[in-house]
Amino acid sequence: MIRKIFAVLLLSLALNACEPATNDNNANASGPAKTNTNSQASPAAATPQPTPPVKTEVKVGDKVKVARDGGSVDATVVAIDEKAGKATVRVQGEEKDTTVDLDKVTKP
Q: Hey, which residues does 76 pair with through a beta bridge?
């Protein structure tokens, strides 16, 4: 008998925990809005600003130098994604294209 009562109690607690909390005694619901009497404005939450697209001096087909492994290698630009700040290049002597940051790509 005690197990059944305990099980019902736990079930009711679990159901109450899952229900959204409603506050029927909300004093702000019908009362006038309070104005900020403080002379200082409340600080707004800092929201991260999206980074502007990187302006690039290179375009598709340009011969460039790519900084890699402490040095630089010759490559040709295959594609540019200014929003992501990336360039796809084909390094001379390699078959696969490589995606690199635009700041690592320079004109010779």
A: 63, 90
